[in-house]
Design a protein that fits this description.
heterodimer; A: about 140 residues; alpha+beta; Sufe protein. Chain: A; 6 helices; globular; B: about 400 residues; alpha/beta; Aspartate Aminotransferase, domain 1; Aspartate Aminotransferase, domain 2; 2 domains; seven-stranded mixed sheet; four-stranded antiparallel sheet; disordered N terminus
Chain lengths: ~140, ~400
């Protein structure tokens, strides 16, 4: 297991420059994702349009893994129906749990992040933004 | 500089006494402020206790119980001697955190002290107990302002002068997040002049330099075995006798009682009054072995060795572009830093995977201190007796590599 398995070009390119980094002034939903044990804080913004997620942005400070994962998530969720988005988020989080059967086809590119499972200390980084969105979507009709 | 202890053994060969370095010969362990590794004598003490003495203490009269009790009390004497106190003043606890919680609770109950003061750079374990007990018992809590990583004596003076009621200042002798060393003697004088008492969190300080509790005039001192070569789960609270005697107990159960009636109980005298339940007896024997090991070294030379590594680390790291050192210039044993383009977690991961260097990344259980420095997290390299100049060089080389790799 080498460092290249963790910091892939995929992760580094998403963390160095993400088109989804930033804020949304007219967000319908916003949520803070905080990793209290390490001080990372991301804020997730989401705009909705007729039962779909139209825009996702994230802002704040995090390590390469948590930022890249937030970026991949934003890319994947934009344009999805809320119900579908819930399934996607559940599937992604399922990648890091031993007893869940995951439909990886829902996840597109995001599936490559499952390599982080081999670095147990970093699972909380890769799931940070996703847990926040799980909470945001839970309360929607 | 001659790096040798009293028996002439070179400090450079000290790693040989630590099985972990046989297991991982390339390990550069710089997370000593979190916990230190254990020499074989400490590991063997635990095995030996469970093999030869295992029994409960202070109760049965059989042979094993007697041996366990003698060992446990030997450990108490060794801890007392180590900081120049008497055994009755040494309460065994789970560690510094429990020692400080015990104090915050018992001092709240005593009604003598109306105000608790703790600098904002404190470890959460010397901050949250005072903050929370203040809320529960209606005491005043003052999170003392800091300047960067340092406590300025003028600030302290402003806050503690002209207080009408008794107060407690709880402060680290050496901060875990940056290695700021408190001018203890001056602070003790100031606190006592103003009618307060002082609690020293010695978790980082006691492993690093000789400390004379009696001479220091400090009222309470807390520290942990595991940060000074001993096992986890055991530590000490050392207190002035009259204060310990005055304080109500923290937890109730076996060992801490005197006579139990249906509706009231009288308590044992100190230190047992504060030691409810079966203590960590094996841990105490490990603590004893750790103290024996440290006593076998010339502690002045050890302190100088660590000082030298710390200043070398300051020097090496400050020459890395984009790196900001957060520790005060004269920090002891600890160098905290951030790099402008590499997140602390990523840097720590890189150092571990590529150079087998173990440093801490995160907020170091000191969120208010991180806020004070204007950051969310940082990296921390911390040294102990087995670290070498090469360790510092590998760290610096690793950081330079990481900056290139992530850049």
């Amino acid at each position: 297991m080498s460092l290249d398995d963790l910091y892939t070009d995929f992760i580094l390119s998403h963390s160095n420059s993400s088109p989804h980094k930033g804020t949304l002034e007219d967000a319908d939903l916003r949520e803070e994702a905080r990793n209290l044990s390490c001080g990372d804080e991301l804020e997730i913004f989401m705009a909705l349009d007729d039962g779909r997620i139209s825009h996702v942005r994230f802002d704040g400070h995090g390590c390469a893994i948590s930022v890249a994962s937030a970026s991949v998530m934003a890319q994947l969720l934009e344009g999805k129906e809320i119900l579908r988005a819930r399934e996607i988020v559940r599937s992604f989080l399922g990648l890091f749990s031993d007893d869940e059967v995951v439909d990886e086809t829902l996840l597109d590119d995001a599936v490559v992040l499952k390599q982080v499972k081999r670095f147990p200390m970093r699972v909380k980084c890769v799931t940070l933004a996703w847990h926040a969105v799980e909470g945001m979507l839970k309360d929607l009709e | 500089m001659p790096l040798s202890n009293d028996s002439g053994v070179s400090l450079a060969r000290i790693k040989e006494d630590f099985p972990v370095f046989h297991e991982y010969p390339g390990l550069v362990y710089l997370d000593n402020a979190a916990t230190t590794h254990k020499p074989d004598t400490v590991i063997n003490a635990l095995v030996s206790f469970y093999t030869r003495e295992n029994s409960n203490v202070h109760r049965a009269v059989h042979r094993l119980a007697e041996r366990a009790t003698v060992l446990f009390e030997d450990a108490r004497r060794a801890v007392a001697d180590f900081v120049n106190a008497v055994p009755e003043q040494v309460v065994f606890t789970k560690g510094t955190t429990e020692s400080l919680n015990l104090l915050a609770y018992s001092l709240s109950l005593s009604e003598e002290f109306k105000t608790f003061i703790a600098p904002q750079f404190e470890h959460h374990s010397n901050f949250v107990p005072w903050q929370q007990m203040s809320r529960r018992f209606g005491r005043e809590f003052i999170p003392l302002e800091i300047n960067g990583a340092e406590l300025e004596l003028d600030t302290l003076e402003r806050v503690i002068s002209n207080r009408k009621n008794g107060f407690v200042l709880a402060v680290s002798g050496l901060t875990n997040s940056t290695g700021f060393k408190l001018p203890i003697r001056q602070v003790v004088d100031m606190v006592h002049k103003s009618g307060g008492i002082i609690v020293i969190d010695g978790a980082q300080l006691i492993p690093h330099e000789p400390f004379d509790f009696e001479d220091s005039m400090v009222d309470f001192l807390a520290f942990s075995a595991h940060k000074m070569l001993g096992p986890t789960g055991i530590g000490a609270l050392v207190g002035k006798r009259e204060l310990l005697e005055r304080l109500p107990p923290f937890a109730f159960g076996g060992e801490m009682i005197d006579r139990v009636d249906l509706h009231d109980t009288t308590f044992a005298s100190i230190p047992q009054k504060f030691e409810a339940g079966t203590p960590n007896i094996a841990g105490a024997t490990g603590f004893l072995a750790a103290i024996d090991y440290l006593n076998g070294l010339n502690r002045t030379i050890v302190a100088e060795h660590i000082e030298r590594l710390t200043s070398l680390c300051h020097e090496e790291l400050s020459s890395i572009p984009g790196l900001r050192i957060l520790s005060p210039e004269k920090s002891h044993g600890i160098v905290s830093f951030v790099h402008e383009s590499v997140h602390p977690h990523d840097l720590a991961e890189f150092l571990s995977q590529n150079f087998d260097v173990a440093i801490r990344s995160g907020h170091h259980c000191a969120q208010p201190q991180m806020k004070g420095l204007g950051i969310r997290s940082s990296c921390r390299a911390s040294f102990y007796i087995y670290n070498t100049v090469e360790d510092v060089e590998v760290l610096a080389k690793g950081i330079r590599n990481a900056v290139r790799w992530f850049g």
